Amino acid sequence: MNRRRRIYEGKAKILYEGPEPGTLVQHFKDDATAFNAKKKDVIEGKGVLNNRISEHIFNNLNAIGVPTHFIRRLNMREQLIREVEIIPLEVVVRNVAAGSLSQRLGLDEGTQLPRSIIEFYYKNDELNDPMVSEEHITAFGWAAPQEIDDIMSLAIRINDFLTGLFLGCGIRLIDFKIEFGRLYENDMLRIVLADEISPDSCRLWDIGSDEKLDKDRFRRDMGGLVEAYTEVARRLGIMSENEPLPARGPVLVK
Ligand code: TMP
Question: Within 13 Å, how many C-alpha atoms sit on residue 123's CB side?
Answer without folding.
Answer: 17
